[in-house]
Amino acid sequence: GDGTVLALDAASGAERWRADAGTTLTAGVGSDGRFSAVVTRDNELVVFEQATARWRKALNSRVATAPLVAGERVFVMGVDRVVDAFDALDGRPLWRLQRPTDALTLAEPGVLAPYQNTLLVGQGARLLGVDSLRGRVLWDIALANPRGTNEIERLADLIGPPLRLGDLLCARAFQSAVACARLDNPGLRWSRNAGGIEPVGGDAELVVGADASDRITAWKTVNGDIAWTQERLLYRGLSGPLVTAAAVLVGDAEGYLHALARDDGRLLARWSTDGSAVVAPPVRLGEIVLVVTRNGGLFAMRIG
Q1: Which string of b and e fits 153-182 if b means at least 16 CB within 10 Å?
Q2: What CATH number does residue 265 fall under?
Q3: What is the pLDDT of residues 21-49, one digit of tens each?
Q4: Range of 220's domain?
Q5: Whole-number pLDDT of residue 148
Q6: What is the mean pLDDT of residues 128-135?
Q7: How many structural domains comprise the chain?
Q8: Is residue 15 situated within a structural domain?
Q9: Mean pLDDT of the chain
Q10: By the 8 A CB rule, do 181 and 158 touch?
Q11: How far apart are the C-alpha atoms of 56 and 194, rounded to whole Å?
């Protein structure tokens, strides 16, 4: 893309405002409805208030995770897993979290999410609870136990976006595990060995994800037991899933959106987009499901 940032009406697709970051984006958009933040290929954080660019900050690392805007703060995590917090109003640096990390990290979106007054941060295979005001680590939970004889085999970074279900957070550790952790009384609820490189989706009943061969598995949210598996979409290059009350929705590398039954994973229907890969988990806004493709397409669908 060319650095254009758009705000669209979810129901009609009508443009509400348009802004320009000046160059290609590598991460974004994060927004709280007032402020919107993106990161450019020049490692520059750009924050807009509606269509107006309010401030810019040079960053020390490449960024692949969308910035988080919350509580009049902008949080940014680099691919080196260093987290910086800025004042959303003027860009003033507030704090930096830099911990010893593995020599090798995944240059893909990681876990950066809010929970009450706590910032949730993925560091390798561990989930940290961080004081959002001071950057102090409050708690630390291992979601996977990486194994291997070298750094590549032990790479198990948490993949974003995570699945937040009230006081529960579920996420995939790269090619290692799918796990859920309690946030109110921090601790691991369950973890299951499962390869895969895309984020999980789910709801209060199911956590769903595809492994490296695109075998889809649904685990019971309460205990991690397998509810069903589906192998009809093997090697389709699947996106992360969206779980709705009606179906499990997942995109593929040819631009199709597939619907699977919640109870047993059988295929129900599929819809085409523009023929290019679906590059992110579908997102639901009210009755609308949004799908983004590699060619820059944004498709809004009404799915029962």
Answers
A1: ebbbbbbbbbbebeebbbbbbbbbbbbbbe
A2: 2.40.128.630
A3: 989 999 879 999 999 999 999 999 999 99
A4: 198-304
A5: 66
A6: 96
A7: 2
A8: yes
A9: 93
A10: no
A11: 40
Please report whether residue 18 resides in a domain: yes
Tell whether the model's pLDDT for residue 81 goes beyond 80.
Answer: yes
Of 275, 270, 266, give the one whose Cα is nearest residue 296: 275
Q: Is the pLDDT of residue 250 over 70?
A: yes
